Every structure is written in C-alpha cells, then in structure tokens.
Write the structure tokens for this entry.
Amino acid sequence: MNVFSTSNIKITLWCTWALTVTHEACEYTEQKFNAEKTGGDPVIPSPKLDTDLVMACDRLVDRLIKAYKNYIQTQIDIARYSKLISPKDTGHNEEREERLLERCPPGHEGTKLVEIPATILDASDAIITWYLPDALTDATQIKWCLQKEIWAASDLLAPMLEKSVKNQLDPEVSASLKGASSEKILKAIVRPAAIATVALRVMHPEQYWAGLRAFTSLGEKAESKELPKMSETLQYWASVFNSLSVICNWQTPNHRDHLSIPECFNILTTVGNYSNARMSMPSLQLEFRRLVIHGVHAVEGDRIAWAWYMRDSVHVYAGVPSCGWARDSILDVWISIPDSGYSGLNR
C-alpha cells in the first residue's frame, strides 16, 4: 500500500463486500481515463471484473473524456450561491429564485440547450455538473443487459417504503431492505450501483473517498454495536452512495435536494423507451436533452430514473468530514485487495 502525503487516514475494506469489486472497477476506470486524457499506455482490467462491467466502464470513459474536453464556463460562484440559500428555499418561489439569479447570475442570456457530453464550471473552475448522455453503453447487448437489470431491480423495489432515520441514535437499514427479498434486491442493483460509483470516482474523487470511508466506519460500528442487519446489508451494497431514490414516469417541478451534501454530486440515471426528455437547471439557465435548482419535464413513453446521493447525516454519524467542491484533479491513491481478511488503504 502507498501513503498519500496529505493525510494519514486509514480505510479498510472487507474482501467479501460487493463494494470491493466496485472499487476494482473504479481503479480500472480512473486509470483508463487518465491514460486517455494524457495519451498513456493501455490499461488492463482486473480479472475480477466481468466482461459486461468492463465494457460498461469503457463506454463510460469515452463519455467522460468527451465531457471533460467540452467544458462550459459560467460566471456563477457556486460556493457563494450555496451560502445564500436555506432549507426554506425549495425552488418553488419564483420571486425568490429571480432574486437569487440576480445576485448570482450564470453570465449568459437566455437558456442554453446542452445536447452532447459536457462539464459545467463555475467562475472559480469548480465543476458543478457532468452531463453524460448515452453513458451506459452503445453496445446493444450490454445496454439491454443494464437496462434490463435496472427495470428488474425497480420492480423489486416498487413496494418499498423507506423508513425514516430521524431521531435515531444509530442509522438503520431502510424498511425495504429488511424483508425476505432484501438480498435479492441488493444483488439486483449491484451492476447499476457499480456504474454510478465508477463515474463518481472520476468526476469527484474526494467525494468517492469520503463515501468509501463512511461505509468502512459503518461496517466497524455495525460490528462493535452488534447490528447484524447492517453488517449483512453492507456485504451486498455495491455503491459509495448511501441513498437511492427510484422514480417512475414522474414529471418533477423545479426543486433542490436539501438532503444531499452541497459540495457533493448526485447521480441521476435514466432508462426506458421514451423520447423528448429534458432536464432544466434554471439557476444555471441550462437545459439538458444539482445544490442548484432543477426539474424534469414530462416525456413520451416509459422512463425510470435512479437518483444516487449521499445523506450528510450518515457521514456525520460515521465521523467523515465534508469534502470540497469538485475540481480538475485526480487523487493519487493506491489500494491492494488481499485474498482474505481486510484490505488496507492509506490516504
């Protein structure tokens, strides 16, 4: 293992966790992204990764590189903007939103339509958004495989009612993952969970490591406090995101996601047989064919959206500090996965 010079924080992973395989996919994708960006040598994937996952990662790198090279600079100061809003700013008060837009204008007139992969930067070069259309894959059989898995998993999740974790000393596994089908549900979402996490590893490395560290802490607390259901669920959870919302055929008004961490990315994945889909971000005066206000318009056809995000309350419980805004930097971190026991990582 190598030591990252700015920190002495140790992260441990259980080799039996699904998240360990996800981490292998993240390592491969980050290395391939850097090689594509700098013209480096070809990267060989780990034999632990199945062909479908490798092909999906390769497609994702293609989209990430295209977005990285196509940046859109805005004049908004996202850190200042985040300080101006409060939980009361839901995004529904048009007069309030107009005042916020006047104080933090994006720097262009009218609404811009973004139709190809792109990154959106603020005035300080913080990355606000990555837009990755067709990111799942362009290989028909793999695309169908991923879409089929997401549809099947969504069917299993349909009856779920998430149990609130407010006013509890220790976080709990959501009610939908406590029943007889919990293992089946967790296994069904493994690959989509891995793809979302792989994307995050490139888009916001600091957030990725914060999420990984949070799950390490949850695993330790689950054992020390004898929380068997938590330990069991962590074995199959394959994402560094701690929350997932599933939305089917919904048109959403402009809103903000106040349960999320302001500096962190949410990842929205959509699949289905639909057309004319649009996502608007009025705060940036952009429309795509998130602390920022956003909404999804109605579509023609059937659409399922999976929204991955991190609840700050989980990170607070896990003792993980907040991360900064995403910028153009890739952390130099290494990890080794032994055949048994723990794997260690120093940052």
